[in-house]
Amino acid sequence: MDGSTAKRVRRTKAEQRAETLEQILDAAELLFSKNGLHGVTLGDVAAAVGVQRTLMHYYFADKLSLFEAVFARRAAITAGRRIEALDRYAAEAGDSPTVAGALHAFLDTDLDLYIQGGELWMNWATFCARVSNTPEGAVLMDEHFDPVVLKLVALLKKALPEKSEAAIFWGYNFVTGALINVLARSGRIDRLSGGLCHSDDFEAVKKQIADFMAAGFLALKD
Amino acid sequence: MDGSTAKRVRRTKAEQRAETLEQILDAAELLFSKNGLHGVTLGDVAAAVGVQRTLMHYYFADKLSLFEAVFARRAAITAGRRIEALDRYAAEAGDSPTVAGALHAFLDTDLDLYIQGGELWMNWATFCARVSNTPEGAVLMDEHFDPVVLKLVALLKKALPEKSEAAIFWGYNFVTGALINVLARSGRIDRLSGGLCHSDDFEAVKKQIADFMAAGFLALKD
DNA sequence: ATTATCTATAGATCTATAGATAATGC
DNA sequence: ATTATCTATAGATCTATAGATAATGC
């Protein structure tokens, strides 16, 4: 019940399994977020965890399965939160939703999760951003986030009945690009701004992004 | 002087060298744009060109050198065009540049090049977008495009004297994210919109993006 | 006489599997 | 008695180099 000095006070096998699995996923998440699927080997992940590389195959059939597991572990949580936030806003706004209201629900809910979730959630966000435009990542984005996006687009259409559907989808494409670029945390904005902005400062982003994009939508042609 | 049927009417060695080099760069550009640095082997590139894989090492020291050469081949051209366009607009606008004017010079000049440049230029744009948030790509982005971005930001500051410098850099971060996402041509917008939008339709993007972003800048806090 | 391309191959690395060992579980 | 981890290893692939061959260049 204390285990103060003991380095390896292991509990049940189920616990040990869960613990190792989590360590593998955490390590893979960080490595994939920096170097992508092909830039990481199973040996890299094993070394980061401190186990034999062959243990990777005990838990995952192959590298792509590990990659998909990293994505799936947190995707449902953020997708669910955003669906909820959009539904809540839709109910609240009734017949007259605004673009800004819909975007705050869509964007701020996501950023809040990373702000509050700590380093591991930030790593996952960066992993998502990093792989979103790869063949393997695009499939996962479609699979996990299409319902969220379509719910947002439905609200935007209601808020902007005079704009064409295509124009609204292009606007969404700009929004998601901006968000992905934020989540990617490449460090470019830090260098360009001479230290005025920090890639990790999602609070500063949250302060601006939804209203910035909302103004853009109102300026769409069509 | 005719060489109608001959499959290999080779000219001087300099010509042959230039021709092979170009084929290698074209093939690498397309492959890297889809799979990134680590997702492509020198054998893949050689196979696409139809030569022995060892020929890659005759022309390039290693894979990273090839990668950098693909980036550099076209980077100076688009950077130069955009610098020119921004300088021209700055001269024309004098003391009162507008955000929209600066963004049209920055964004439309780039999109025009890909629209007019054909498939190979489109591939390069997608390559840039694909690798912009990788460790290897970020270095190249900084190296080749910082002067262009800083020129844009200088114009934006002049157009928006009441906004903080940090706010303007965040706005730029949203703009570049949207542009990168467009250039990446992941096909996601095609699927989401049920075919209303096409990833390759840069004309449609050009019609919207600069004014969309300009409206966003005017809505920035600070 | 020089240069573009190919053949042959060494050495490193990576994925994946089979089977052994060392823990926990009744 | 089952399960987590490790050892050993096969097979595939990849980078990189040395040296041979086949073109162009004076």
How would you describe the overall organization of this protein?
- The structure is a homodimer.
- With about 220 residues, chain A is mainly alpha-helical.
- Chain A has a single domain (about 5-220), classed as Tetracycline Repressor, domain 2 (Orthogonal Bundle).
- Helix content of chain A is about 75%, strand content about 0%.
- Chain A contains 9 helices and no strands.
- Chain A has helices at about 15-35, 40-50, 55-60, 65-95, 100-130, 135-160, 165-185, 190, 200-220.
- Chain A is elongated.
- At the A-B interface, helix 6, helix 7, helix 8 and helix 9 of A face helix 6, helix 7, helix 8 and helix 9 of B.
- Chain B binds a DNA duplex (26 and 26 nucleotides) through helix 1 and helix 3.
Set out the fold topology.
Two copies of one chain form a homodimer.
Chain A: H1 13-35, H2 42-49, H3 55-59, H4 63-93, H5 99-131, H6 135-159, H7 165-184, H8 188-192, H9 202-218
Helix pairs in contact in A: 1-2, 1-4, 1-5, 4-5, 4-6, 5-6, 5-7, 5-9, 6-7, 7-9
Chain B binds a DNA duplex (26 and 26 nucleotides) through residues 10-13, 16-17, 20, 41-43, 51-58, 62-63.
